[in-house]
């Protein structure tokens, strides 16, 4: 299948592209490299550098590449940043997504997969979080994704654009050895913990240990990027039978302290940790119910242990201590 992947040079997008090309698809990656890395794009994919804010450029790329499906990863993705600079999200994220959706409609692309987020649910009342949980975005980031879900809903109604919205929990692990997490600045727990293991940082600061959880630190649902990738492949196939929305996590929760302990076991290194202030906006517990995607698509996470997830990330970080830098 011809598939256009926006943000295909980024952490999750490039892992999905890797799996799509291995499955024999003809992939075009569209990325402005503001956060992505050229070296992350797998060799057989066609790379087009450019910006989704530029509507005529986007229309042209679709007219040239004639994709049959689009996967839209390109996005600002940080809750904290969205609380400081809401327009990056409520304007930029939304505008870029809508430009792409308009081009999809104009160019007769009728399959679309959106990277959405658990932040749609803010601070949920019930754990695990299923698809029936009320949507109350926890930040402009989550709101921007919800707005795009709503646009897709109407484009399906009016133009028959079939879509899947995949609401990711905490993406983690690496499509090792060649692809992994490389953000600048890095804000995510597992890469920071592994940077401490590598001696690149002095310590990990735990953001609060007085939450209402067994060890007082926040609990998150870490899902391996390659499991996320499989979900995209299955969701794309299922679009034959209509649009759908899934919460996507491995269904297990691990606390920040459990992550640090597992990283100590996997790396065999000392990982100094200290407790700091809580980070504003962090809910205590986020765990997905993945019943719906398991039942409807037959998806099952392969990497459901924390050790397996951290082990793959460790392979990547050890081999690429400075991320993609040396390959660019
Ligand atoms: N966290 C932490 N120290 C850090 C980075 C993250 O204690 O240096 C915690 C954070 O408060 C949250 C969890 O680790 O409870 C996961 O955070 P991350 O930023 O990786 O993902 P998020 O849950 O925000 O999507």
Description:
With 328 residues, the chain is α/β, with parallel strands linked by helices. It has two domains: 2-172 and 222-248, NAD(P)-binding Rossmann-like Domain (Rossmann fold, 3-Layer(aba) Sandwich), CATH 3.40.50; 189-220 and 251-319, UDP-galactose 4-epimerase, domain 1. Helices cover 38% and strands 17% of the residues. It has ten helices and 13 strands. The chain has a seven-stranded parallel sheet, with helices on both faces. A two-stranded parallel ribbon has the order 7-10. It has a two-stranded parallel ribbon with strand order 8-13. Helix 1 crosses helix 7 (225-238), helix 6 (189-197) packs across helix 10 (306-319) and helix 8 (256-267) crosses helix 10 (306-319). The protein is globular. The relative contact order is 0.15. The mean pLDDT is 97. Uridine-5'-diphosphate (UDP) is lined by residues 79, 170, 187-189, 192, 204-207, 218, 220, 256, 279, 282. Uridine-5'-diphosphate is lined by residues 79, 170, 187-189, 192, 204-207, 218, 220, 256, 279, 282.
């Amino acid at each position: 299948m011809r598939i256009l992947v926006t943000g295909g040079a980024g952490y999750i997008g490039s892992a999905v592209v890797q799996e799509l090309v291995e499955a024999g698809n003809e992939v075009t990656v569209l990325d402005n490299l503001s956060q992505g890395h050229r070296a992350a794009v797998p060799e057989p994919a066609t790379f087009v550098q450019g910006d989704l804010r530029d509507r005529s450029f986007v229309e042209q790329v679709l007219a040239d590449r004639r994709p049959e499906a689009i996967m839209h990863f390109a996005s600002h993705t940080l809750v904290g940043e969205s609380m400081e600079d809401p327009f990056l999200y409520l304007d930029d994220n939304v505008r870029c997504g809508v430009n792409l959706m308009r081009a999809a409609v104009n160019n007769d692309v009728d399959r679309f997969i959106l990277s959405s987020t658990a932040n749609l649910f803010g601070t949920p009342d019930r754990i695990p979080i299923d698809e029936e949980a009320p949507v109350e975005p926890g930040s402009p980031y989550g709101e921007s994704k919800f707005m795009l879900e709503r646009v897709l809903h109407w484009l399906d109604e009016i133009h028959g654009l079939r879509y899947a919205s995949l609401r990711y929990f905490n993406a983690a692990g690496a499509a090792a050895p060649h692809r992994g997490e490389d953000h600048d600045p890095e804000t995510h727990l597992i890469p920071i913990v592994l940077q401490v293991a590598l001696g690149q940082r002095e310590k990990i600061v735990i953001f609060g240990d007085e939450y209402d959880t067994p060890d007082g630190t926040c609990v998150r649902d870490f899902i391996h990027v390659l499991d996320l990738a499989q979900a995209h492949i299955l969701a794309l196939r299922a679009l034959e039978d209509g649009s759908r929305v899934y919460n996507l996590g491995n269904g297990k929760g691990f606390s920040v302290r459990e992550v640090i302990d597992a990283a100590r076991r996997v790396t065999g290194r000392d990982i100094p940790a200290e407790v700091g202030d809580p980070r504003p906006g962090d809910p205590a517990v986020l765990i997905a119910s993945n019943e719906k995607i398991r039942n409807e698509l037959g998806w099952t996470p392969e990497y459901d242990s924390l050790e397996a997830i951290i082990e793959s990330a460790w392979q990547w970080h050890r081999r690429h201590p400075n991320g993609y830098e040396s390959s660019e």
